[in-house]
Amino acid sequence: MANQRMLGFVHTAQRMPDKRPATERRQDFAEIYARFSDERANEQANRCSQCGVPFCQVHCPVSNNIPDWLKLTSEGRLEEAYEVSQATNNFPEICGRICPQDRLCEGNCVIEQSTHGAVTIGSVEKYINDTAWDQGWVKPRTPSRELGVSVGVIGAGPAGLAAAEELRAKGYEVHVYDRYDRMGGLLVYGIPGFKLEKSVVERRVKLLADAGVVYHPNFEVGRDASLPELRRKHVAVLVATGVYKARDIKAPGSGLGNIVAALDYLTTSNKVSLGDTVEAYENGSLNAAGKHVVVLGGGDTAMDCVRTAIRQGAVSVKCLYRRDRKNMPGSQREVAHAEEEGVEFIWQAAPEGFTGDSVVTGVRAVRIHLGVADATGRQTPQVIEGSEFTVQADLVIKALGFEPEDLPNAFDEPELKVTRWGTLLVDHRTKMTNMDGVFAAGDIVRGASLVVWAIRDGRDAAEGIHAYARAKAETPVAVAAE
Ligand SMILES: Cc1cc2nc3c(=O)[nH]c(=O)nc-3n(C[C@H](O)[C@H](O)[C@H](O)COP(=O)(O)OP(=O)(O)OC[C@H]3O[C@@H](n4cnc5c(N)ncnc54)[C@H](O)[C@@H]3O)c2cc1C
Ligand code: SF4
């Protein structure tokens, strides 16, 4: 029953509360991420009605040809299904694992709309592509001819890597610079391993290296080179640096020990799972084991924090969010997973301060009433007078969202134009910024978004760069000057 429920065979309304201890329930979650059997993949693929307007495809950011690869899977033609699947997506088995399908392809499946539960598109995508890796069908995309022109990519997240793979396949010499020691961006240091195994990211990173992409780890642009220096070295530069400035809370007691930023907590957990020794984990400051944990925020990062804390052996895990369940930004599926694992949600509650002497002991909070909708259509949170309460906490994790860093300053390129939110301004047709030959893609353009959108942007930016470099090559003087 539990497996069937997780695989989407049972409609949500039929879900029964799972009374088993959290440790046992977690084993079921491991099973969802385990391989589909051939029969299950076939059964799900067969459920596709091959409808005239494929709403799933329309709502997939990379426009995956979902009906075609479902049909091929249902006919047992898996290698062809793989060919179709990888034609539009550089990291299909990653998207199959971590796309919020309930908001994208599966949420728009007509079978879902008819209340019979969507075809589990993401799981089939994962199945097809994991099979392709097992069978040795996935090969490095080496170019048929070298163009003798190099492109620099700043940032090895999904946007930078998707662009790098596309450009390398076209024949460019591609150099990827990243300030981290490992390539993958948030795929490796943000998203927890229970959602996306690190080996799955590593094999993709290696595949690109095998195709000839050159990595420069521990290379921070702004410290180890400026943007003008990289522009002199490469015909074009792609900025795909993501957004990393964490939103903070200023309230009495916010400087106490054990109040930490979500990404510090998750990065540490990911490093430890990769075998690194991290002092802050060893000394307990970034480790939830044996603690009462409170996570502030209601997005997907908050969900990753609560679920990581459960796995680290926290005594209790609570999530404080100022709006209600239906208004939270995170995926409803993630919330359901967290609840089933034992996380307690305190809806319509906002932190006002923290108690403790040197280290936090509690979060002081107030209840929130959701008032009339503002201009954006969202109800305005209003504090309910006299509703103060305190939640016990030995570790508070702030998951309040991310903003872009000040790139023009950091990159020593004051002319680089940004929007009023600090994201890079690009021409959306070409992905070029206001600086000649400098392109941008992923979260640094959209603000905090999704892996699949970063892939889409990276692919589009590669096309923009290719068109730009070709135009330059047709102007011999300009090319010679590079
Ligand atoms: C905790 C968490 C969980 C998430 N879970 C999901 C999920 O389940 N599903 C989903 O679709 N999306 C998820 N997201 C969002 C998703 O990870 C991002 O939208 C996506 O990774 C953005 O890709 P990117 O390539 O633009 O940037 P990133 O993945 O952030 O990569 C940017 C890279 O640039 C490097 N960099 C930055 N500045 C410099 C510099 N000056 N010099 C050199 N290198 C630099 C960074 O080190 C990093 O490696 C999650 C995000 C977070 C934070
Ligand atoms: S890439 Fe994401 S949205 Fe597109 S089909 Fe796959 S899981 Fe669905």
From TrEMBL:
SUPFAM superfamilies: alpha-helical ferredoxin, Nucleotide-binding domain. Residues 151-458 form the FAD/NAD(P)-binding domain. The keyword Oxidoreductase applies. Residues 25-136 form the Dihydroprymidine dehydrogenase domain. Coiled coil: none annotated. The keyword Ubl conjugation does not apply. Keywords: 4Fe-4S, Iron, Iron-sulfur, Metal-binding, Oxidoreductase. This is NAD(P)-dependent oxidoreductase.
